[in-house]
Amino acid sequence: MNKLNLIILILIGVALFILGGGFGSYYxxxxxxxxxxxxRGLSSEVIPSIVAYGKITKIDGKNLTLTYGEGSITxxxxxNAPVYYFIDSPSGEQTKKIxxxxxxxxxxxxxxxxxxxxxxxxGTTVAVHVNSTK
Length: 134
What we know:
By secondary structure, the chain is an alpha+beta fold. It has two domains: 42 residues; 82 residues, CATH 2.40.50. The protein has one helix and seven strands, in the order αβββββββ. β6 and β7 form a beta hairpin. The radius of gyration is 25 Å and the shape is rod-shaped.
């Protein structure tokens, strides 16, 4: 085999390698498209928020980790997010506005979540629940 044939074979090999990488990238992008569309839908004005529920198992600044069963999610709470404390008692439900710093570990909470323009989850409202009838 002379040098010219060897160079041609190497160039064909490199071209096939590049084409294979291009097709692989295209295939992976096609697989991600449904997930990207779902995120776009959840961040639209038509769906203002979704709700996460669970026990608060970690508090790290403005980040709350909610756990329910085997699943958990960590959500950064927006700076201006209202935080409410709901108490179910025999005399009826009582509600008061509290600060994020007043939340305790093991509290049960609902966190309204939206998806920010940069694709991150952000808590828009926190509702902490206590049942005093137990």
